[in-house]
Amino acid sequence: MDCRELQPGGPTDPAGSGAAGTRPLLTLLAQLRAAYREPSTVPSAMRRAQFEILQKMVRDISRVRPKAPTEPVHVHRARQYITEHLADSLKVENVAKHVGLCPQQLRKHFKHATGHTIRHYCTRSRLEIAKALLRDAKTNVTDVAFEAGFQSLSPFYRAFRKHAGQSATEYQRKYR
């Protein structure tokens, strides 16, 4: 294969295939083409072989379509329910009942789809709310913990330090 075939709009132009994200590949190929034409101590047969391998890789990459993440309906409904009830004392049994699964099935499906346990997901969601509230300099850290849905302060402080790498007070000071 000749390097001229990779001209934009040419027969092997990855952008012509409609694949998203191939523009950087075209830029890289243009740089490779320029490097290919420069004098080198590497034998021309080896350079030609290397360039052909790179061209094949670009063609293969341009054909790959990223899969749209599909989330099971039960997991989607569970996440919605959790988001709506973060301020409450959430129990897996209540979430499972809401989505029509037994708690064990919900735990399994949720972990598989999100990569997190339900408890971890709830904690992370509450911490994101807490971080947003802490950016408001007028809000008290104790009030933030309860507004974010934590039932007591020690789990809030422990989770915040683990998640943010600093205490909630230190985090808030950055925004004052």
Distance between the termini: 61 Å
Estimate the mean pLDDT confidence: 79
- Number of DSSP helical runs: 9
Elements, N to C (H/E): HHHHHHHHH
Largest β sheet strand count, sense and barrel closure: none
Q: What is the percent of helical residues? A: 55-70%
Compute the number of structural domains.
3
Strand content: under 5%
Q: How would you classify the helix and strand content by structural class?
A: mainly alpha
Global Rg: 26 Å
Instruction: Give the overall shape.
Output: elongated
Poorly predicted ranges? 1-20
Strand segment count: 0
Top keywords for this entry?
single chain; 176 residues; mainly alpha; Arc Repressor Mutant, subunit A; 3 domains; disordered N terminus
Would you kindly provide a brief summary of this structure?
By secondary structure, the protein is mostly helical. The protein is built from nine helices and no strands.
Molecular structure report:
- With 176 residues, this protein is mainly α.
- It folds into three domains: 3-63, no CATH class; 68-115, Orthogonal Bundle (Arc Repressor Mutant, subunit A); 117-176, Arc Repressor Mutant, subunit A.
- Helix content is 62%, strand content 0%.
- It is built from nine helices and no strands.
- It has helices spanning 23-37, 44-63, 73-84, 92-99, 103-114, 118-134, 141-147, 153-164, 168-173.
- α1 runs antiparallel to α2.
- The longest helix is centred in the N-terminal third of the chain and has 20 residues, at 44-63.
- It is elongated.
- The termini are far apart.
- The model is unreliable at 1-20 (pLDDT under 50).
